[in-house]
Specification:
The protein is an alpha+beta fold and about 475 residues long. Helices cover about 25% and strands about 20% of the residues. It is built from 10 helices and 22 strands. The strands form 8 sheets. Strands 4, 14, 15, 16, 17, 20 and 21 form a 7-stranded antiparallel sheet that branches. Strands 8-9-10 form a 3-stranded antiparallel sheet. Strands 1-2 form a two-stranded parallel sheet.
Length: about 475
């Protein structure tokens, strides 16, 4: 995410707010002002979503464009039909009051191009006289005097200078760089800082702790049918047309994010909310890093959205150029593997549903020979990957295990806040980018001393609620 706009400039462009109960959990831990009813107005304020004009859960006037993909791959229909055949409900708005079930995703896309905080917020603000954006600059440390942040030491073109702060300093480096910068500034575990020769400004062992991320494992299918996105001789004429239509009109598959459908479901009975995310990719998953799918197939990825494992970010060196040590401790909690295994079993049922029969796809991973709990568990441990949703290394809270308070102020240091995914008390049940934007919207009110918007009222009359029929897969 070391790019203007942060990780939103390189992510999968998925817009998902999270499960409403996630934010009520944040508030229940003592984080006043962070319940679902209180944060929903900030989500709405940030959004411009023409697909749900008139819905109380959406807005058409915010800076960030959110839409459904306009022309879906026809294989999405097979995924939806498979989910329906297995008894799951349809969800036409994953950012509505009940994001459970299967359906098309919403993305941060404007006129066929990526929308990010850089395009939606930063670039318009750069016309103001009170904003300077410095690129190719390295923040070395926050200058702290008498437990107050007074500026930031920045290195650029080999020169180090201090940028003084009259009011406050705000860290937005994400779940890796924000704790690293705090530790380089003398805020962290005292013994560790002393070992690196860093003056301890505040003993705070919670800095870098509680780091966690979403883990995913996938069922991979391959086929000769060329309906999926992919590079092949059979698909060459279609691919050439797709390139041309995108170049001329910003339409077609290149205006999509490929991950066009998904589902949130409960993998077992007794849960109060979905515990797995199912992501459908109508494209073959390459065994290497080549950016375009070679050949044809599809993938059904299972994401365990509420991990119990906790890792840590720690310093590797007092040199800010040296990346910190990141120990995500994935599967450190033995029970974290269970929803992935249940999800993989479900993914196999989806892939072999009658709606997919016409494609005659064969499973290449885990593979037919991988069966039983021990086989699936070994497959998960060998192949599971992060989906890049790291959070909580500067977690918000009211106890000793928190770094920032509910106003996002670093506890024990004046005039210093953190505003990024590192402040999540715990990860939301899904993609994280929309929640980071919400946090930034709320932070702007906190910094300016503006009153929070009125909490969202959930009892709107049905006459005010409008639901747009999402786009259907193309038959072309």
């Amino acid at each position: 995410g070391r790019v203007v706009g942060g990780s939103g400039s390189i992510n999968g462009m998925v817009y998902f707010r999270g499960q409403p109960r996630d934010f009520d959990d944040w508030a229940a831990e003592g984080n006043a002002g962070w319940s679902w009813r209180e944060v929903l107005p900030y989500f709405i304020r940030s959004e411009s979503n023409p697909d749900y004009a008139g819905s109380p859960y959406h807005s058409t006037t915010g800076p960030m464009r959110v839409t459904h993909m306009r022309r879906l791959n026809p294989m999405n229909r097979a995924f939806w039909d498979a989910m329906a055949s297995l008894g799951f409900a349809r969800c036409d708005d994953f950012n509505g009051p009940n994001p459970e079930g299967y359906g098309p995703r919403q993305g941060t896309i404007r006129d066929g191009r990526r929308e990010s905080t850089a395009t939606a917020y930063l670039r318009p603000a750069m016309r103001r006289g009170n904003l300077t954006v410095m690129t190719d600059a390295l923040a070395r440390r926050v200058a702290i005097e008498n437990r107050r942040a007074v500026g930031v030491d920045v290195e650029r073109a080999g020169e180090v200078r201090r940028i003084a702060a009259r009011r406050e300093v705000v860290l937005c480096g994400g779940s890796v760089q924000s704790p690293q910068l705090l530790m380089l500034s003398g805020v962290g575990t005292g013994a560790e800082l002393t070992r690196f020769g860093i003056e301890v400004k505040l003993e705070q062992p919670a800095v870098g702790a509680n780091y966690h991320d979403h883990l995913a494992a996938a069922v991979l299918m391959e086929m000769r049918n060329s309906a999926s996105y992919g590079v092949s001789l059979k698909a060459l004429p279609r691919g050439a047309w797709n390139i041309l239509e995108y170049a001329l009109a910003r339409r077609g598959p290149f205006a999509s994010n490929v991950f066009e459908s998904n589902a949130f479901v409960r993998s077992r009975e007794g849960l109060d909310r979905p515990d797995i995310q199912i992501v459908f990719q109508p494209a073959r998953r390459n065994p290497n890093t080549f950016p375009l799918p070679l050949g044809h197939g599809f993938a059904i990825s299972i994401v365990a959205i509420y991990p119990k494992s906790r890792g840590r970010v720690s310093l590797a060196s007092p040199d800010p150029r040296t990346p910190p040590n990141i120990d995500p401790n994935l599967l450190g909690a033995p029970e974290d593997i269970d929803p992935l295994m249940r999800g993989l079993a479900l993914a196999r049922r989806i892939a072999t549903a009658s709606s997919f029969a016409r494609y005659r796809a064969s499973e290449v991973a885990p593979g037919r020979g991988v069966t039983g709990e021990s086989g699936l568990a070994d497959y998960v441990r060998r192949t599971a990957t992060t989906v890049h949703h790291p959070v909580s290394s500067c977690r918000m809270g009211v106890g000793a295990d928190s770094v920032v308070d509910p106003q996002l102020r670093v506890r024990g240091i004046e005039a210093l806040r953190v505003v990024d995914a590192s402040v999540f008390p715990r990860v939301v049940g899904g993609n994280t980018n929309a929640t980071v934007v919400m946090i930034a919207e709320k932070a702007s009110d906190l910094m300016l001393g503006r009153p929070a918007p009125r909490p969202f009222e959930t009892g709107e009359p049905a006459s005010r609620r409008t639901t747009r029929v999402p786009p259907q897969p193309s038959t072309a």
